[in-house]
Amino acid sequence: MFARNGIDKTSIRAVAAGAAVDPALVHHYFGTKQQLFAAAVHIPIDPMQVLGPLRETPIQEIGYRLPSLLLPLWDSEAGKGFIAELRSALAGSDVSLFRLFLQEVIAVEVGSRVDNPRGTGAIRVQFVASQLVGVVMARYILELDPFKSLPVEQIAATIAPNLQHYLTGDLPL
Amino acid sequence: MFARNGIDKTSIRAVAAGAAVDPALVHHYFGTKQQLFAAAVHIPIDPMQVLGPLRETPIQEIGYRLPSLLLPLWDSEAGKGFIAELRSALAGSDVSLFRLFLQEVIAVEVGSRVDNPRGTGAIRVQFVASQLVGVVMARYILELDPFKSLPVEQIAATIAPNLQHYLTGDLPL
């Protein structure tokens, strides 16, 4: 349902109806709609672990904060499950849930705050996504040497100014 | 043989011997060793189309030149074959030839020219690779909207200063 209708237009009530159970049961086992979505994408991490701190971060610092939140997560045990899931999604041609996560969750959370000039927020966020997805590819899937062994702090510090440039810099948009 | 021994340590003579044919036949059908490697990775593009112009490009401009060479190729008919091949390599867990291409061909061609301070060339090039692979993912595989429809010139111009920063900027290395 998330893949077909998007996150906004999918309600816990509808998911529960589809599964022929009480909505309270879905809430009980999965929590919020965002946590249910995370479970559907097999992200073994509550998105609010990342999105919560980002909400508190001034937009001039998001480019620096984002990789320092994400890289330690990806390097963790829980992150391994996420990487495996991404890889299998790529193999099976079903990338719709990942696309949705990037387009709806991240775009809504961050894109709306960097939409300057108006209409550029989604593009800014997708350039950030391209660099972050590229780090995942280089480090965990292609396993480039020495990239795969660099300390997370070094990768975060190296890409941060570029992410910030995408978010608030003067782009040819 | 390329995947097992690397490009440097693989000779056309050895490939020919493995196939029980005359080396001249391999030369005749595949050209140079780099062209043979490109054929093995199913890159339907002569690597020299990109690497040739890069050799002529001053290092202060490579970050700008590289995406303007690569993006039109990826968007072309020949590029579609390359993207399909990358995707199937990701699915089949056999990314060794792509890793080799990034680590040996690009690192040798470009990394040696940006190895300043000494020992940082490979890392600089791999950060560039991470951004370029991320563009491939966002545009052709995840097909993020609007990223997938942006003009190639816009993507090239947006990532160029960041690529240049990785190549010649002051990084926390």
Quick summary of this structure?
Chain A has about 170 residues and is mainly α. Chain A contains ten helices and no strands.
Q: State mean pLDDT of chain A (0 to 100 scale).
A: 87
The string of secondary-structure elements of chain A, in order, is HHHHHHHHHH
* Oligomer category: homodimer
Query: Which residue ranges of chain A are poorly predicted, with pLDDT under 50 across at least 5 consecutive positions?
Result: none
Q: Mind describing the biggest β-sheet of chain A?
A: none
In words, what does this structure look like?
- Two copies of one chain form a homodimer.
- Helix content of chain A is 68%, strand content 0%.
- Chain A has 173 residues and is mainly α.
- The longest helix of chain A is centred in the last third of the chain and has 21 residues.
- The mean pLDDT of chain A is 87.
- The interface between A and B is large, with 42 and 42 residues.
